[in-house]
Amino acid sequence: MSPRTADDKMSGESSTTADRARAAAGDRVIDAVLTASRLLVAVSARSLNEVEDSLTLPQFRALVVLASRGPLRLTHLAEHLAVNPSTAMRMAERLASAGMIDRSPNPENRRESIATLTEAGREVVEQVTTRRRDEITAIVERMPADHLDRLVEALESFSAAGGEPSAGYDPIPLGWQ
Amino acid sequence: MSPRTADDKMSGESSTTADRARAAAGDRVIDAVLTASRLLVAVSARSLNEVEDSLTLPQFRALVVLASRGPLRLTHLAEHLAVNPSTAMRMAERLASAGMIDRSPNPENRRESIATLTEAGREVVEQVTTRRRDEITAIVERMPADHLDRLVEALESFSAAGGEPSAGYDPIPLGWQ
DNA sequence: CACTTTGTTTGCATAATGCAAATCATGCCC
DNA sequence: GGGCATGATTTGCATTATGCAAACAAAGTG
Q: What is residue B100's DSSP assignment?
């Protein structure tokens, strides 16, 4: 928002140049990550469709969250998916009627109900994950080996700088809306 | 698709180990890129909301495509967004009634109608882009400088290996959904 | 028991999506 | 020139995803 401040007027051209340099770096990075993201998205979508084309991507994300975090209250599921509780609720209904999850009230606390992955749900997640991992592996195999470590290192550094908690095996960005 | 071929049976354990190594590499990469993607998605969504919270992310993606490719036929817009023509059509309607784009029939060829960014649309894209670039720049500034080049290099290598056409300034993956 | 807190569910409204069928404007071929 | 294949847009239909706000329900508190 404010690449040009009062300071700029003092330092003149050099500051402007530095700004431009950083901006260019930002553009390059954003381009690179965006492209890589697209690739990953494409891979994920393809993997999902090959295994189960009746599930939508948001639904699959929900399954993945349940697979990695274990049974969750609807509220927490909603939080992990970064959606409104009502959205999570209705998604849960659909997933339940598709046999992918179970939704039973917690006996301890009858006001909350817990979503659990069914065996079918677990299998879908596993198959899609395997499929996806295979595709990624195939891509990675085509990369120069020495780029691999750098890639991971650089990406982690980037994420750390952005304050994003490292994502064990969480969602799939797909949510990009 | 075929990490295990007939050859595997000949080389025995070593091949299994290699497979595991590659798979692990794949997992690390996917984790890293996924995390970075999430960060980028978050940044994009935030930037968009700060500038214009009445636009949805898909709509904004459409504007970005128009900004980078220039006026497009609806069919082509749909292709660039990787959605069905009917989806693009209705999105175009909404964007038009929001004053972000113009939709006029091509005088040359009246069967096609062309979507053009309006001044308002261009401004939104520019503001959001600036905002986003600033945020990315801020993150990049916190990275060790020597990681930057590697990051770009490694990511490009990854995308190239996956056969993803380098994305000048295209969409935002958000579509993961 | 009245009041608050917390989690779930419903109502209401809008967007995004895909598929298939209906139009519409061209271009081309007898 | 009339009829047909083609390509592009538009409509109809159905489903999902979303958010917000209000209604509910189960605990917990004073």
A: S
Can you tell me the distance from the alpha carbon of B172 to that of A173, in angstroms, rounded to the nearest whole number? 10
Write the CB contacts of B94 (distance below 8 Å, at least 6 apart in sequence).
B59
* pLDDT at position B11 over 80: no
Q: Which residue has the higher pLDDT, B37 or B61?
A: B61
Q: Distance, angstroms, CA B118 to C1' C23? A: 28
The H or E element containing residue B130 is: helix B119-141
The verdict on pTM exceeding 0.90 is no
Running DSSP on this structure, what letter comes out for residue B87? H
Q: Tell which CATH classification among 1.10.760.10, 3.10.310.10, 1.10.10.10, 1.10.560.10 matches the domain B18-175.
A: 1.10.10.10
Q: Which residue has the tokens 């040009």?
A: A4
Which of B35, B166, B170 shows the shortest C-beta gap to A167? B35
For B71, phi and psi rounded to 5 degrees?
Answer: -50, 140
Contact B43, A162 (CB under 8 A): yes
Task: Tell me which amino acid residue B106 is.
Answer: N
Contact across the interface for A177 and B23, Cβ inside 8 Å = no
User: What pLDDT shows up at residue A36?
Assistant: 83
The end-to-end CA distance of chain B, in Å, is: 24
